[in-house]
């Protein structure tokens, strides 16, 4: 006879455990303590089995019958209901341990070993702000393409298109990392190229090479302050602004006439060697007379970081009338343009700019490659700058691989 809710409530515990049948193999097991547990009796490959379906009243009579039917469907499909229940429990536990946020943090921790520390922290902060609140708690296997699209589009609608693009890339990299380790089977962020509106690429402002004489004259006309020294050294080395302002005296190898920037201060977290021309060495000697007893070349007593700020060069250029015409990064672009136009091998120039090589192994091997060639190129470029400065207003001199003429 089928059970009813009233009949179940009236079932009292006995000295020994007993069961009351509902039908179709479903029974309610009453223990001496008074607890009531649903069980389903079935046969698999000729052997009797019992499957626990949950405790009453947490699992009602109707729910117990529904679970019995679901288990019966598994049995009809040739599956072992008890084993399937255990597998399902393991899958849920596995998914709970593999939420997007947990895997993303693990990936960032691993990835951070090969990235600039500041950049790695920036990636984490952005994901905490834009991604984790939306999909961080979801298991990787439950995140769909629409979920990722919604995250990226939400960021894009705020007007931060570049941030949205970067987050899309980071999400895709997390899923690629997870898939390689068997934590998921597909990457829902793999092909979302058209979900964001196009945006004209912004380039760092940089003057045309024909305007170089005017710029050199404007720099020379400045008083001998750190802004002037920084601009002149930037011209002679065309390193990144952050690498320049953080320069330390112990990085300068006077004997080898080289500047060795450690990987901790490089964008791609790889050490970089900058050949120093005679002009660059002379300039450093001049600065050494002022800050040689300090740790930083461009020491600043008013800064917590103990060196001048990243905005020093930019503000100096603005005061000289170069607002929206020239930036600190523009010195790199200017040097690259001139050297490429004059026929220097691109590999020399790219290595001098410390650009990332697509081939990671080659990149690690090549960090000092072309050093002798770059020494020659940097000296010739410094000589070229001297000639342009001296001949301002006259015919512009040219630079080729054989030097000035």
Task: Give a brief outline of the structure.
The protein is an alpha+beta fold. 48% of the residues lie in helices and 11% in strands. It has a four-stranded antiparallel β-sheet with strand order 1-2-3-4, covered by helices on one side. Strands 5-6-7 form a three-stranded antiparallel β-sheet.
Structural commentary:
The protein has 405 residues and is an alpha+beta fold. The protein has 3 domains: 5-94, Integrase, DNA-binding domain (Double Stranded RNA Binding Domain, 2-Layer Sandwich), CATH 3.30.160.390; 100-180, DNA polymerase, domain 1; 209-404, Orthogonal Bundle (hpI Integrase, Chain A), CATH 1.10.443.10. 48% of the residues lie in helices and 11% in strands. A 4-stranded antiparallel β-sheet has the order 1-2-3-4, with helices on one face. A 3-stranded antiparallel β-sheet has the order 5-6-7. Helix 7 packs antiparallel against helix 8 and helix 15 (346-352) crosses helix 17. It starts with a helix and ends with a strand.
List the helices and strands and how they pair.
Elements: H1 5-9, E1 18-23, E2 26-30, E3 36-44, E4 47-56, H2 61-76, H3 81-97, H4 100-111, H5 117-130, H6 132-136, H7 145-157, H8 161-180, H9 212-220, H10 226-237, H11 241-245, E5 252-253, E6 258-261, E7 272-275, H12 278-291, H13 311-319, H14 330-341, H15 346-352, H16 360-365, H17 371-390, E8 399-400, E9 403-404
Antiparallel strand pairs: 1-2, 2-3, 3-4, 5-6, 6-7, 8-9
Supply the key terms.
405 residues, alpha+beta, Double Stranded RNA Binding Domain, DNA polymerase, domain 1, hpI Integrase, Chain A, 3 domains, four-stranded antiparallel sheet, three-stranded antiparallel sheet, 17 helices, 9 strands, 48% helix, 11% strand, rod-shaped
């Amino acid at each position: 006879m089928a059970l009813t809710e009233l009949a179940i409530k009236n079932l009292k515990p006995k000295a020994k455990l007993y069961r009351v049948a509902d039908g179709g193999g479903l029974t309610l097991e009453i223990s001496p303590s008074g607890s009531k547990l649903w069980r389903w009796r079935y046969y698999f490959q000729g052997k009797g089995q019992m499957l626990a379906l949950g405790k009453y009243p947490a699992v009602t009579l109707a729910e117990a019958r529904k679970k019995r039917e679901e288990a019966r469907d598994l049995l009809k499909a040739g599956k072992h209901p008890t084993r399937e229940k255990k597998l399902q429990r393991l899958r849920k536990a596995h998914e709970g341990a593999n939420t997007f946020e947990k895997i993303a943090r693990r990936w960032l921790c691993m990835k951070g070993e090969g990235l600039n520390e500041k950049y790695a922290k920036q990636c984490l902060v952005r994901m905490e702000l834009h991604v984790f609140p939306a999909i961080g708690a979801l298991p990787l296997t439950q995140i769909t393409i629409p979920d990722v699209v919604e995250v990226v589009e939400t960021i894009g609608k705020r007007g931060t298109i570049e941030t949205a693009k970067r987050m899309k890339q980071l999400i895709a990299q997390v899923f690629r990392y997870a898939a390689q380790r068997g934590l998921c089977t597909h990457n829902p962020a793999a092909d979302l190229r058209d979900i964001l509106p196009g945006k004209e690429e912004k380039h760092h402002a940089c003057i045309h090479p024909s305007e170089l004489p005017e710029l050199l004259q404007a720099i020379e006309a400045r008083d001998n302050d750190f802004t002037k020294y920084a601009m002149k050294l930037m011209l002679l080395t065309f390193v990144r602004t952050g690498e320049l302002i953080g320069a330390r005296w112990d990085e300068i190898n006077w004997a080898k006439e080289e500047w060795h920037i450690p990987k901790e201060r490089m964008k791609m977290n790889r050490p970089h060697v900058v050949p120093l021309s005679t002009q660059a060495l002379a300039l450093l000697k001049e600065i050494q007379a002022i800050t040689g007893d300090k740790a930083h070349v461009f020491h600043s007593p008013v800064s917590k970081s103990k060196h001048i700020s990243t905005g020093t060069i930019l503000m100096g250029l603005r005061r000289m009338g170069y607002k929206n015409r020239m930036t600190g990064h523009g010195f790199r672009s200017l040097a690259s343009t001139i050297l490429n136009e004059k026929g220097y091998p691109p590999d020399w120039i790219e290595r001098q700019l410390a650009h990332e090589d697509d081939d990671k192994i080659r990149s690690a091997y090549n960090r000092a490659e072309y050093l002798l060639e770059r020494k020659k190129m940097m000296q010739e470029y410094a000589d070229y700058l001297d000639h342009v400065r001296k001949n301002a207003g006259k015919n512009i001199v040219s630079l080729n691989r054989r030097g000035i003429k």
